[in-house]
Amino acid sequence: MSKQKHSRNRGAYGSILIHSMYTIKEASARTGVGAPLIRAWERRYGVVEPTRTASGYRLYDDATLRILVVMRSLVETGWTASEAARAIKAGEVAIEDVSVERPAGGPVRAEPTHRARLIERFVAAAEAASAAGTEAALDEMLVSGSFEAVADDLLLPAVAALGDAWVAGRMSVAAEHAASAAVARRLSAVFQAAGVPASSAAVVVGLPPGSRHELGAFAFATALRRRGLGVLYLGSDVTVDGWVDALSRTRARAAVIGVVTSEDRPAAASVVVALHAAGVSIIAVGGQAAQPDPAPGHGVIVLPPRIAEAAEVVARSLGRRG
């Protein structure tokens, strides 16, 4: 049975509002979204933020259930989960009138975009373990625009969609790894094609200890290199001492730390503190879970979400223009 949360929110008539609260099992039954997928959307996109009981159990209110119904409806009609989450958080999709009484309900309808269809093809090929289909979908993505736009709008959402397919049970871990590796190979090719600048590294890019989802950081490092900046890309799961050593040896002026999930934030803050103590002049964080002041008082730059804009911020900070 759902719990009741009583709070005195006095409006024009001084009324008392009563909000129903649901366990994750109840939320799943009412929205038609599986519990593992609810947790994945919470962890990956931050689209819902349940309250917690004293014992740590998740509780969801009606407003949160409406968001889940809209997410489900958008994804079912062709949107990627990342696109749907971004639109909901930006207020581009109405959720106020969505019903949560019927699991099959939800008035939102959206036609698949060309981007969504490309991503759908890629994921379908990955689910089928079709190397040829996966490569063909990536080829079509990469010729559809600039590298930075393709990375933001296609490659990284496609990688997120792989994770969603795995959580939903449509894809094996091996198939997800194979498709992600195909994306990594394409990023590597673009990174190498950008050439090796004559100067030493100006920027060091990588992930903090324990963080392993590196494709976003790799794409960003590639964008910096395409601007002519010297970049040392460290990769995933870099220790705090490793960060300090890399900055010391290269004498790079800037460090960019990827923050992919909320679990990465404490480790990223540790890296920031150590680099600040080592005298690194420009420290920035970027990524899906980056938030202001990861280490208050250390002058950290929080980069915008889109790769081209983030690269521009770093370039300007270094006194360089693309």
Structural features, described:
- This protein is an alpha/beta fold and 322 residues long.
- The chain has 3 domains: 3-89, Multidrug-efflux Transporter Regulator, Chain: A, Domain 2; 114-192, Methionine synthase domain (Methyltransferase, Methionine Synthase (B12-binding Domains), Chain A, domain 1, Orthogonal Bundle); 198-317, Cobalamin-binding domain (Rossmann fold).
- Helix content is 49%, strand content 12%.
- The chain has helices spanning 24-31, 35-45, 62-76, 81-89, 114-127, 131-142, 147-167, 173-193, 215-226, 240-250, 265-277, 307-317; strands spanning 3-7, 17-22, 51-52, 58-61, 203-206, 231-235, 254-258, 282-286, 301-302.
- Strands 6-5-7-8-9 form a 5-stranded parallel sheet, sandwiched between helices. A 4-stranded antiparallel sheet has the order 1-2-4-3.
- Helix 11 (265-277) links the parallel strand 7 (254-258) and strand 8 (282-286).
- The N and C termini lie far apart (59 Å).
Q: For the CA atoms, what is the radius of gyration?
A: 22 Å
Q: Helical content, roughly?
A: 40-55%
CATH class of the largest domain: Alpha Beta
Count of individual beta strands: 9
The CATH homologous superfamily name of the largest domain equals: Cobalamin-binding domain
Low-confidence stretches: 1-18, 102-112
Q: What order do the SSEs take from the amino end to the carboxyl end, as H and E?
A: EEHHEEHHHHHHEHEHEHEEH
CATH topology of the largest domain: Rossmann fold
